Each structure stands twice: as structure tokens, then as C-alpha cells.
Amino acid sequence: MKIKIGFTTKKSVLEHPIVSISVNNVLVIPELELDACGSADDPSAEIQYVTIDSDIRDDQIENHCIRVTGLNLFDKYKVAGDFGVQIRYIELGPVNLDYFTKDLIAYNPIQDLAYVTNYLEPEQRTHELVYIEGKQVHRTQGEYADYINLQDGFIELHFCTPLYQWLLSHDFGHLTRSLLSNF
Amino acid sequence: MIKEYCVWYQTGAGGYIVSWLIQVALDPSTLTKALAVFPMEINQDYSKWKKWEATPPTVAVLSNSFYPATADKINRDTTIRETLTKLSNGGQFFWDLVHCRIKYYLVNFIFQSGNITVQKFEQLKQSDEWQKLHCQDHIKQQSDLLFDPDRNIFVIAPDRYIELSALVKNLYVTTSNLAQILTQEFPHLKTFDLMSIWSNCWIQELEKIINRPLSKQQQEACELLINRYNMVMPPLIRNFCYEN
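Predict the joint structure of the above. Result:
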């Protein structure tokens, strides 16, 4: 199954963020320099796509995980949230997840307590802090958990094959939710 | 339930009145059902317009299927072109425009409305029609109509009409160059100009779609539906339609 991922970035001191991509714990792209994409702030920004030929088969019942990890997102001058990598597009085989559900999980390891005091506390989001292997990590999940801005931060997409059954088990995500009303 | 046509529209563009006009033109005996979709009660609260939405028996509707719900992050004109190109290329495979196939099936065969309450949704998930969603061949067979250019109609409405609908009916709408793309790049696809209803060209528009002249009975039934629609339209939109 082909996996197509589209990136945008927020650029600060570091011009070109670098990420790695693994599929089911196998590193398939050790270093991808994001040098051809537009700003995450711009809805019509140029998206930098990468396509991976994975050995995932849609006719087998299996769980899968795609992980994108930031490799050089350290910049002591940056302001939290003002720098990083965004996954804007994911296509799994024939399915553009934008039409259904892009339930991502973003993990941003805390390196500086200022991130907590200046960003998470004022926004009342400290409940999103978790500990992973002894390290404090900011974990977010959902349609907009598509962004990492801290060194070793990573984004995961968990999905299952067959894809159609996976989409059906989620009631086709926001394709269906957009039809729900209060009347 | 066999669908003869599918009406594609963007939120607020008049998709339901167009689909019911085609339905009544095909079968004037469905006029009563059509009038029930546009009851006089609409005048009491335009924001609840959708409450009466029901899909016509043999004409399907498909709203907002040119781009994803996350439309703020994409170039809409690009996805419109991609959708219309795929539609024109036959739909040999289940995965071709799969989001359109699924929405088409949900709206027209399971919900039979463009919107549904959470409670009703949970009930319908127990239905036989919902269980049929497990069968890809069934969904493909039911939705293959989407790839027949003669049987898909695209509603074209002025941006201002759509904006006013959004304002009055409390809808979230997005703009695009759909009309321009359709007329300039996909002239083989059928369109229905919403404003023909108020410029007295709707008979020609309907005849163009169903490929035959409308009988007097068909014309009269459609006229009754149009009169009702004019009566329940928010005055702001009605004024715009008559002025333009």
C-alpha cells in the first residue's frame, strides 16, 4: 500500500526542519528535509509530499502505525508554537483521510518548563502532560494534533486494514458527523 | 429505490429545491411529498429549514462533496477539478470517489435526508440498510450512477445567493469557482442554473436535464412547487432573486 504524507512547516531560525518516518516500527525514511513546503499558517501553502511504498496489504486484518519524528527541532530562541512541522495531508492507498478522519496523536517532549508555564498553563492544558519513559511529554490527539515543534517530538497515526472496515468502524468520521444536526 | 439522477450542490445553493423540481418534473404525483419539504412553517424560523429536508424518491442529492470538511487547508478549485475529472472517467473501481459513494449512500438510502439527529443516527445504525454498508459491492452498485455524466446535475447559484442563505439559515459555507470550472472545463456535464427559477427559464433547464419536453401537467406541478418555494423563502433571498 502506498502512503502519501504532505507537510508544511513554520520556519524560524532553522530554515529546513528534518523529520524521519517509520511505518510499523521500521524506519523507512531516516531523514527527510522539508525544504519545499510553505507555511503552516497559510491555508493555500505549498505542500511537500512524500510517498512511501509500504508492504501493508489491505486484504489482511492488521493494526498499523505511522510515526513522523522531528530530528532537528531544537532552537533555544524559538517561542513555543512558533516553529515546527505540520502533517497537512495523509493518503493511505486510495483513501484521502481528509474526507474521513485524521485522528493523529502528537507527542512533544518537554525540554523547558517555560513551555508549561508560558503556554500550557495559561491555556489550561496541563492535563495533556504525560510521562513516557520517564520524560514529560505534551500529548495531544485529534484532527488538529498534526503539529510538532519540540526536539524528538513525533506524530503517530494508528489505523487498521482492511481500510474500508476501519473507516466503517469509525462511522466514516466527519463525513457522517457533518450530517448530524440538532433538529 | 432506484435513483434516476443525482443533484450535486454546495451548501446554501438550493440543492433541495432543484432536486425536488426534477423529481416533480419526472413524476408530478410526487408534488405532495415535495410540498412537505417546503412547508409554510419554515417562515417561523429559517434557521430550522433543514428540519424538513427529505430526499426525493428517485432523484438523489449530494452536498459538499467537491472538497473535504477540512476545506480551510486545501485549494478547493483543485479538488473540484479532481472530483469532476474522476467523475468523468467512469468510476470503474469502488475506491473511485469513495467519499462521494459513501455519502451518497448514507444520505439517499439510509438517512433519506441531508441531516439527522444523533438519536436517529444511532437507531439507523441498527437498520438493514446500515448493515449493507459492510458490502462494498452493494455500495458500488448503488453509487455507480455518480459516474454517468448524463445523470448528474450540478446546481449553479450566485455567490450572493449562497451568502444570503448562509446568513439567514445559519449555515457555514465556503466559496469556490465551481460554476466557472464547470462551464469552461467540463462543458459535457449537466448544470442547473438556480436563477432560471426567477428568470422564467426553468422549463428549458428541466427539459435539458430530462431530455424531453415537459407536459402541461408536469409544468403545472413544477409551478406549484416553485410558488410554494417563493412563499417560504426568506424575504432577503427572495428580494435578491427577483432583483437579479
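The beta strands of chain B are 5-9, 59-63, 116-117, 152-156, 190-193.
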